[in-house]
Design goal:
CATH class of the largest domain: Alpha Beta
Number of domains: 2
Helix content: 40-55%
Order of helices and strands: EHHHHHEHEHEHEEH
Strand order of the largest sheet: 3-2-1-4-5-6
CATH architecture of the largest domain: 3-Layer(aba) Sandwich
Shape: elongated
Number of helices: 9
Distance between the termini: 7 Å
Oligomer: single chain
Structural class: alpha/beta
Length: 234
Amino acid sequence: MITTIGIDADDTLWHNETIFESTHQKYKDLLSRYHDPETVEETLYATEMRNLELFGYGIKGFTLSSIETAIQLTKGEISADEIKTILDFAKNMLKHPVELLDGVSETLHTLSAQYELIVITKGDLRDQERKLSQSGLKQYFKHCEIVSDKTTSTYGRILSRYKIAPENFLMAGNSLKSDIIPVLEIGGTGVYLPYPLTWAHEKPNLPPENHKRFYQLENIRELPELITTLLKAD
């Protein structure tokens, strides 16, 4: 029986990757006099992966890696004005208004009346808290967990903290790697909600085949009906 629902934030509750995508394009335009777009993109991604353990996920880590990449690709010739432009990109991202995905508010309103909801998200603490506060959704969640990564250990600690049995836990999100696979591995239920854009780092895993606790939906609006169906099956 499902008693608790974990829900991812970025690209599950509100748009996020579109903001990064737009900034990536501006960044490639900024460095276009030094390198072609493909080289800039590939080098930036490699820098981000190298720095992930140090900087973590989020806009601030992305910005530090962007500056490091710019210095590398220009052999130190990047100007102070160009570095300031990169910092302005970051500030605009951090000030970007929160834009909810279709059906999110209504669905959370429905689910929160019957289930305990927990938002579980990666990223910069201050930025994620800002987005949750500005989203108008905080009222629906009993707990908020902003974590450095999403692994089986991460979910295990969260469930243990709130005394939730894995078989009573359902996690919904747009990343198979972060939101679904680890939850299935500890015995929970995973509901995949694909988003049109996905960061390369979140792409490696394919949907699990014939897993009895894995489900995929087109829209979060379908989630209450799915849970009702699962409860009837139990």
